[in-house]
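Sanity check

After download, print the first record. It should look like this:
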Amino acid sequence: MSSHGAPRDGRRADGDARPASRSRKVQAARWVAYDVLRAVSASDAYANLLLPTLIGEAGLGAQDAALATELTYGTLRRRGSYDAVIAVAAGRPVDQIDPAVLDALRLGAHQLLATRVAPHAAVNEAVNLVASEVGRGASGFANAVLRRIGRDTPEVWQQRIEQTARSDDERLALRTAHPVWVIRALRRSLAAEGRADELDALLEADNVSPEVTLVALPGLAERGDPARPYAPTAFASPGGDPRQVLARAGGAVRVQDEGSQLVALALASAAPVRQGERWLDLCAGPGGKTALLGALAHGGGAQLEANELVQARAGLVRNAVRPLPIDVPVHEQDGRAFAAQHPGAYDRILVDAPCTGLGALRRRPEARWRKSPSDVAELVELQTQLLDSAVDALAPGGIVAYVTCSPHLAETNGVVEEVLRRRGDLVELDAKAVVDEVAVSPIDLAGDGGRVQLWPHRHGTDAMFLALLQRRTTEG
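Expected structure tokens:
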């Protein structure tokens, strides 16, 4: 124990209470980044949802907001590599360090190893942060660890941690900050398209902050410049900061990945829209695709409903559809139960299924550390049940779009093949042909068959998967 009452490994002592007020020696942008890191670690918060809220509450200007964003996403993105560095510098596994201290060390390590922040500022602010949140004894431990990290270059630290690897995949994992199981899953998915040699490019793309892409809801807004290459609704945010554009648009322009726009557009374009069609977004949260589908439904004379199990996410869906000129009821049920209550009721259904999120690691970097291989089987079972239930809720001739923000073969082709295998009332449509028709410029869609797999390194989008299934008008 130190003289200040906190253990030297950074754990909080029983009597070392958190101060009532936070240190003003820590820049507000760093407090915001730290608070997001803590919420992600402690309560599985989604950084992309929480960060804008905390930036607004802190009243950060554009420059500080950009700093908070870079610190948050950069730290989350390379957390696995930073943990390896911290373990060496601290002389103990990271699971023996107080979680509140560990997140501050990760934040400090990111600034020391991957930014132009002055080393003394990175160390001092992280130490003051720990002193404010955990206690002075723990801050001494943090000071020692960070000064140890700061003595060597990023290249030296990279070589040092790679020397601990037991295989080529572990070495690649430490170099690219991806768990080994994720690397292997991505390699298999690329190999299924005959493009396993693109793995390095994909891993590199996952670690680059994505361009902010906006959607102009059809009939409510016109897309601006510069236009994105594929979706006719997509354009890049002028200057990167979309807040002024969004404020002027009153909800008719939103932040949305181009891949997400393409899959929603594909469902709406898979067949001519008939007046009075009923559409359903079965797993709607947080509502971006719902809003786009709602605008498309309105333009075609269709009606849209949404369903979302989680109450907070259902609230986000309601906010997303509020600017639409049509009413979109938002239900709060398990998607399987909701579909079972509406047999044969809908002409088009979007099943944007819960998944590992491996396709959005640029945008949600914490997803790579949140899931494990053991989660995949449970997710696949849920995905299969949701798609099966959605088919039951289709009217004859109706179309379901099965979508995941993951390229994992078990979550994509595996689910579709399983549902097709056990059902005789489905025919698969050529989703590639539909997306080709929707896209405003040629799009390179590899692989056999008619399913669509987008990639960040190839298309500049999240790695969205799309399959289109149509219920037969007669059994057979």
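If your output differs, re-run the checksum step. Summary of this record's structure: Confidence is low (pLDDT under 50) at residues 1-20.
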